[in-house]
Amino acid sequence: MADVLDAFCREVGRVVLGKEHQIKQALCCLLARGHLLIEDLPGVGKTTLSQAFSRAAGLSYQRVQCTSDLLPADMLGVSIFDRDSGQFRFHPGPIFTEFLLVDEVNRASPKTQSALLEAMAESQVTVEGQTRSLPQPFFVMATQNPWFQSGTFPLPESQLDRFLMCISLGYPDQRAERRLLLEGNPRNHLAELQPVLNGTKILQLQQQVDQVQVSEAVVAYLQRLVAFTREDAQYAYGLSSRAAMSILQCARAWALLSQRDYVLPDDIQHLLGPVAGHRLKAADALGAGPDLVQRLLSMVPVVV
């Protein structure tokens, strides 16, 4: 199975140049049964990553382009009267898919943003009083522009917490950018990508993640990290128990990607930024998530 995961990352890397680490992080998020938020400037490849990722994963794909006038029904679906049958018939929205790209999620109104909460937390949606299950696996990859850009509605903490991981692509290095300039837009090669995984294989991999072993020493280290955020005055509030479980589940997935069946403290440290960075806030409102994560890693020892 390790060969399959490596092949998946290489296939996506054919289009998303020079972002091997971010591709592996996105795969880690999928295997941990989470949802991914990508925050970065326009034009760095966020949408291209989602399209390449869905093709290589062999999942059905839908895209929602968020705007200020987007309604919840545009995402969830709506019932329309059928004259032939004399009844209302439900027309599913784009959320009824295995892989959903929510592009520029912070350009949607808070009401529309909230339509994602039940789907991301419980893999189901309630429309017109009826609860409908979503396909499995169900994976949301959302992109957002930085908060200082015009026309954005910042995601509330409850919405941010639904995203297991938050990453940034950043600018490509010189080697990747030169390839980009010489070979043309890599999105032109999206149709050439071959599916490496499928829904059944992904569900099997997610079950394997659950079987990765975690020692009591690693759990104790994680608890010390979480406790520090709750006790240190520089943090506006501490990490929740759900955040702690998210870190541990991502560490399991990262261990599986590293061809191990056990978690190391290094896995916790490696995933702490993507999993906890968007959940932490400085008490003075001046600190940033990465700074708070680095403080956490430097202040809490691995071994007591």
Radius of gyration: 20 Å
- The ordered string of helix (H) and strand (E) elements is HHEHEHEEEHHEEEHEHHHHHH
The number of strands is 9
Quaternary state of the chains:
single chain
Secondary structure category: alpha/beta
What's the CATH class label of the largest domain? Answer: Alpha Beta
Strand content: 5-15%
The CATH architecture of the largest domain is 3-Layer(aba) Sandwich
Distance linking N and C termini: 36 Å
In spatial order, strands of the major sheet run: 2-5-8-1-9
Q: Summarize the biggest pleated sheet.
A: 5 strands, parallel
Level of helix content?
Answer: 40-55%
Average pLDDT over all residues? 89
Number of domains: 2
Query: Which term fits the overall shape?
Result: globular
Q: What's the CATH superfamily of the largest domain, by name?
A: P-loop containing nucleotide triphosphate hydrolases
* CATH topology assignment of the largest domain: Rossmann fold
The number of helical segments is 13
Report on the architecture of this protein.
By secondary structure, the chain is of the alpha/beta class. It folds into two domains: 2-197, P-loop containing nucleotide triphosphate hydrolases (Rossmann fold), CATH 3.40.50; 211-299, Helicase, Ruva Protein, domain 3. The chain is 44% helix and 14% strand. The strands form three sheets. Strands 2-5-8-1-9 form a five-stranded parallel beta sheet. Helix 9 (199-210) packs across helix 11 and helix 11 packs across helix 12 (265-276). The model has no long low-confidence stretch (mean pLDDT 89).
